[in-house]
Design brief:
This protein has about 180 residues and is mostly helical. It has one domain: Cytochrome Bc1 Complex, Chain D, domain 2 (Orthogonal Bundle). Helices cover about 60% and strands about 0% of the residues. The chain is elongated and about 95 Å long. The termini are far apart. Bound molecules: heme C. The site of heme C (HEC) has 21 residues, from helix 4, helix 5, helix 6 and helix 7.
Amino acid sequence: MEWNFWKKFVCAAPVLYGVAIGVDLCLGDSSEKVLPGSAADTLTLVDKRMAYLVYNLLDSNGMIVGADLQRGEDLFMRNCRPCHGDDGRRMNLSHDMWHPRYIGTTAHDEAPTFWYMMNFGDSARGMLPYIDEIPLSEMIDIAGFAQTLPRHPWSAQEAAEAMREDSILEAKRKKANQQ
Ligand code: HEC
């Protein structure tokens, strides 16, 4: 066969493949649906949660709309503060002290990553999944509040303030020990 034919064939192959997939999706057997709650259903759950975020919660700037920030703050303090700290800066998630990243940074700059981690966690990194613990409406408030947390390292002023508080606490502790 001619060289030209093969060239055309190679160019058309992806298009034909796409058409074939389209036909398969439209006419394909729908009895292969994943049963809700089956082992294969986990992916569907992730898809649904992520799609919910993208279609219902994010505006064009990637900000959560419709969150109750006050309720979000209360929920954050109850559920997330023990590990992530009052303002989300207890843990540096980048593990790079020169380019720190906190959950405030992730919530603001990468809402889908934040949303995924809050829902499904990451056992390798030690973050728990909250999908069965926290209702969806409360997660929306937490995510909205988390976007307002600081995204940058402590300023010199903030650090000085924290150190002052620490030394007051330390003095109190010493005093208590002496009694
Ligand atoms: C028991 C401790 C603990 C609690 C409670 C906790 N987390 Fe985490 N979280 C972690 C750990 C550990 C990591 C991973 C840290 C690392 O990789 O250095 C993490 C990571 C994350 C990340 C990933 C951020 C990134 O940029 O990679 C997000 C988002 C997050 N947590 C959100 C939350 C939210 C929201 C809550 C409250 C609903 C919460 N966490 C409660 C321990 C906790």
